[in-house]
Amino acid sequence: MDKIYLNKMEFYGYHGLFPEENKLGQRFYVDLALECDLSIAGKTDRMEDSIDYGMIYQKTKAVVEGTALHLIEAVAENIANQLLGNFNKLYACKVTVYKPDPPIPGHYQSVAVEIYRERKK
Fold first, then answer.
1. Can you give the pTM of this predicted structure?
2. Is residue 99 annotated as a catalytic residue, yes or no?
3. Which of 9, 17, 44, 78 has the most C-beta neighbours closer than 10 Å?
């Protein structure tokens, strides 16, 4: 399957279990791997035959910068649902949500979740 990648998109959201996270907010990063057939777009060179990356970004931004959720698992699930529900050419997507500054003692680069969802047949 062909893939479109959007890497390290950065957003500011208010997701988390603790009141401080919901009040102060923090950065979140999102990577997407979108599975679709790009053969027609490759032949026609027409945007209508592919998926608009800008619209993918806007749908992702709306979720991450929208309603605060407790878990990044729920953020990832909502992103996948929005993308599969709004882009007919999309067969499946892998969504990775990174939280670089969770309130967990220790030294690490980030915590993250990765999910893979396919269009219901």
1. 0.95
2. yes
3. 78
